[in-house]
Specification:
Length: 291
């Protein structure tokens, strides 16, 4: 069977593989486009395996929402260049949509979810690796399923995303709170959520910082001084204790005034916790010139 340019073009559009790879696959498959597509898919999976050990700490977040259900997915690439590629962005959006539709509970379960194209997420990931030439990993998935209002926000660069579960209030307040969390990144929701170990450690630190004169004060007065300092620290690390970015009151005051309550929130920052490889290109070039 003749391998026509239109056939090669069709296979390329289906698989995202290079022109020469498509022509070779079609030739080996005797012009059978389905067999050629399957061969390229297997080739893509093999390439994905080879790239799996390469550090992928860049990327972006995908968001999908339907009423009170929302999901955020972190997908990593090796470079910011690929993270901003339109093909990568489309892949991220399609995976987020699949995550919402499938009800997947984590990144591992998401691998077998189907995209609108009919491919599984894992198959599409292998194709993306083949097309973009970098290690691509689906790292994390968080979700909210509520009878209240969902505040969903992803920063324009795709690096920071938040889901807020707001009972009562309205969608506008929920989104404002999501933007607040994205900006100030509080580790905890309310004072009751702050671990006791953290509070005890902060008490030790504050006591160590005090002068001998302050330490010699009566126990009840010393306790009040320490309590005041700890309350300030707790306010700084909780959503409810922080000053609302869209107003002058604390988040707790704003939420209570609206007759609402923040049941919880999810915050994702792309690459958080991944040790990045710092390349010294100048040193690498200098070393190469000495060989």
């Amino acid at each position: 069977m003749e391998i026509t340019a239109s056939l090669v073009k069709e296979l390329r559009e289906r698989t995202g593989a290079g022109m020469m790879e498509c022509k070779k696959a079609l030739t080996e498959a005797g012009g059978d486009i389905n067999a050629a597509a399957e061969a390229l898919r297997k080739s893509g999976a093999a390439k994905a395996d080879k790239k799996a050990d390469r550090v992928a700490a860049e990327g972006r977040l995908g968001l999908a929402q339907d009423g009170g259900k929302a999901v955020l997915v972190e997908i990593n690439s090796e470079t910011d260049f690929v993270a901003n590629d339109v093909n990568f962005k489309n892949f991220v959006d399609s995976v987020a949509a699949a995550a919402l539709a499938s009800g997947a509970v984590d990144a591992e379960a998401l691998k077998t979810a189907k995209l609108a194209s009919g491919e599984t997420v894992e198959e599409a990931r292998a194709t993306a690796i083949q097309k973009l030439g970098e290690n691509i990993q689906i790292r994390r998935l968080v979700k909210v399923d509520t009878t209240g209002n969902v505040g969903a926000y992803v920063h324009t660069n795709g690096k920071v995303g938040v889901l807020v579960d707001l009972i009562g209030g309205d969608v506008e307040l929920a989104r404002g709170l999501a933007m607040h969390v994205a900006a100030l990144k509080p580790p905890h929701n309310k004072a009751a959520d702050v671990p006791a170990e953290f509070v005890e450690k902060e008490k030790e630190i504050e006591l160590a910082k005090m002068s001998e004169k302050d330490k010699s004060k009566p126990a009840d007065i010393l306790e009040k001084i320490i309590a005041g300092k700890i309350n300030k620290i707790v306010s700084e690390v909780t959503l409810y204790g922080q000053t609302y970015v869209l107003g002058d009151n604390t988040v707790e005051q704003v939420v209570k005034a609206a007759g609402a309550d923040v049941a919880g929130f999810q915050l994702l920052v792309v690459g958080e916790g991944i040790e990045k490889v710092v390349e010294d290109y100048a040193a690498e070039v200098a070393k190469a010139m000495q060989v």
